[in-house]
Structures are given as structure tokens and as C-alpha cells.
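Q: Two folds, back to back.
A: First:
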Amino acid sequence: MNKLTNQECFNKVWDWFVVNKNPQSVKDNNVCQYRGPSGAKCAAGVLMRDEDYSVEFEGYGVNGINDSLNQYFNDLVQDICFVAKLQQAHDNWNIIIHNKDFSIHMETTLTKLAQEHNLQIPA
């Protein structure tokens, strides 16, 4: 299997949150989840195939201490550190702090990431 490039990862996350305006994936206590209610996904969860998802991944970052999750993303993408930045863009939003729509937050944050990593914004 070919690993996803940063541009491919970026495009999937951009489409999910900016184009399709999908919500943030959080539990009732505002803890982010790879898979949330009503089909919600976090930025890293967007990259994960449904058949590969495990509830055991919840609570861990993509490059954290969960060995199976870490190995999954290392096998899936070329740059796990970039995926961690996508995950942070999703996880670091809070309506009380940011006082703006989540999709606007993601568009702004992802645009900055694209500039930092010389990526193209999907048309």
C-alpha cells in the first residue's frame, strides 16, 4: 500500500471539515474522538479507514504511547508529525475560547498549515 502524502492527507481533511462542514468529533465532556456521534471524525480519524478503527485508539494521539495506533499511522502516512498537526488543529478548538464556527477555525488553521508545508488548497 502506498503511504499517503501530506498533500493527500491535507486534501481529505480539508474536504471533510471545510468543504463538507462536518462537525468536530467530541464526547459530551468535550474530549476529542477519532470517531464520534453521528459519523463525526477527528482530523486523524478522517484518514483512518472504518474497518481499521478500534475503540482502543481513543484517548491517544497519533504519535503517542499507543503502539498499535502509532504503527497504524506510520504504515498509513509518509509524515506522522504532519498528521499530528492536523489532529491538533481539530483538537485545539473550543467554541468558548475561539468564539467562531468550527469550519471557519479549520479553514483558517489548515490554510496556515498549507502555507507552512508548501501545500495547495484544494479547488
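A: Second:
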Amino acid sequence: MLEILFCTLVAFAISLVLTPEIIKIAHAYNKHDEINERKIHTSNVPRFGGLAVFFGFLIATLLFSTLWQYMINVHLIIALVLIVIIGFRDDFLPLKPKFKLAVEILASLLIIHFGNIRIESMHGLFGIDELPLWTSYGLTVFTLIVVTNAVNLIDGIDGLAGSFSLLMFGGYGCWFYSANDLATSIFCFGMVGAILGFLIFNYRTLIFMGDTGSLVIGFLAAAISLIFLQDNAQLPLDSPLKFPSPVFFICSILGFPLIDTIRVFAIRVASGRSPFSPDKNHLHHSLISLDLPHYQATAILCTTNMAFVGLAYLGQGVGDTVGILMATGLAFGLAHWLKKRSDAYLAAKKAGEPAPHIEVAAHPEPHPQEISL
């Protein structure tokens, strides 16, 4: 347990030290997130926080896996380096989506072929079990890319992607530690510490993680979820750690970014637009439009996702197919209700009518230039 604690603390310390240095450098070279009609922030904010997260995670993970001689998946580390490179390049100078997709596919094939991280079975989902090799490869690449970009798309308000990831990696880390997969547990807790160090500044709107951070977190989240599937399948049937419906449980953990992405893409296509065209139809936009501060919107979305994880844990007996269909229906229903309430609130404000009263806690947004680092 000490190695896990030390790994978390070292990752936290490195991220905590690097983040303000990145902020200073970004301000010195005038490298900030673009301000436009879609963005919620109104001041110059750097977007390279993912570098601090990644290096905090990387150094702590390599250090403690070496000290305690844990066999970590080196190919996963290499794949994450590739993702960091395209993320940083996109933050510094925007890349065309096809180039980002090509690198994501390359990173996915790297961990599939050399790292042996892939979907080998559907575990009974829709009546499907073992998969042919090439079907396994194709489905794994698709899953890695979808989850990576789904997490990237929820990075729209202060603390949201970081807080969601913090809870996810913390939960996964505890399970892997209990299942005696200490190498994967170190991956998870290294990321927990690094995200914590970054969030201290992100919640104060001093820096964003950018694609450098959100793509890395998304890719690692997808890979860790696939490792969970593999480890869970190896557990004996009577193990208290074994999930009878593992696909249902993983879908609940990743439910918020996946549902939000599917929903937004569907809205865009139904409107005759490209699914990749930007807009303000995300769930966090609906909450912000209700005049909620960022931290409250983040708390609502993360708590709701945790509730779905709890339901999936309690509903393991219903099976993957039934569980996923029921949870998906409930999630889309809640999203539709939130959107209708948001639209009604905005319409009432525009018409000058009394809008539904919403308690809003004071949360002044600091200006990065006014805070000494």
C-alpha cells in the first residue's frame, strides 16, 4: 500500500510544481486558449495543463514501477507519448482531425498488437462471446478512439474532465490493487495524483488541460477499462471482486462522456450538420445556461455518473444487455429533461419573464494576471 501512496504523492507534487511554471511560460509567450462565442471563459487562459498531468503521471509511474520491480505495460506508455505529442501539437497549432485520428489509430494498434490490450470477448453482450481476431482488433480500435474523444469532448468547463477522471481512476485503482494487479494500480493512482495537482489551478480558471491532457486521460481510461475486462475474466467465479456483467459496469463508469457524445452527434446530424461541428449542446452547456457556476455543474454531472455506477454495481444480476439498455434509456431521458429545462429557462430570460429560481453560490472567477504564482 505504501508504494501506491508514494506514487500518488510524487505525481501530485510534480504536477503541482509544473503547472504554475507552465502558466508563467504561456503568459510570457502569449499562448492562450482562443476566446470565441462558444467559449465560456472571457480572460486569457493557457491550455497546456495536460503537460503537467502527463509528466507527473509518467515520472511517478516509471519511478515506482522500477523501485518495486512491477512489470508495467511499456507499450501503453509509448502509446500515451504519441497521444501527448499530437495533443500538444493541436494545442499549440491546431491539427486537421484526420492527422489526429491517424495517430490515435497507430497508438491503438500499438497497445493491441504489442501490449496485448484488446477486447477478446463480448462477455455475452447481445449473445456474443469470443470474437475472431480481426473483429477483436477492429472493435478495440473503435472503442479506444471513441472513448478517447468522448472524454476530450467533456472538457468544456473548469474541473469537469479532471474531476470525472479523478473518480474513475481512483475507483479502478482500488479494484486493481485488490485484484493484485499492482502495476495497473500504479498507472491509476499515478494519474490520480497528477490530476489532483492540476485541479488546484484548473478550478481557479488559471489553466486548462487542453487536448494534451484530455486525449491522454481519455486514451488511458479506455485502455484501463479493457485491462479491467481482461483481469475480471481471469478471476474465479466465486471471487468477491468478479463482476458478472463487466461490460455493463464499464459502460456505467464511462457513461457520462459516452452518452453526451452520442447525444450531441445525433443532434448535429439531425440538424443537417457535421457530427464534428462545434456547438453548445453538451450537458455541461445546459447546466451553465441555468446560471450555475462551473463547480456546481461539475458536481452535478460527476454525482449523477457515480449514481449510475452504483446502479450498475447493484444490478449486476440483470446481465450486460438488459443493464446497458435500461441505463441508456434512463440517461437519455435525464438528458432530454435537462435540455428542456435549460431551453425553457433561457426562453423565459429572453422574454423578460421571471425564470425559475436557482440558488447560485458566489464563485467569482479570478483573473490569471492578478494571482501570483
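Q: And?
A: The chain has a mean pLDDT of 89.
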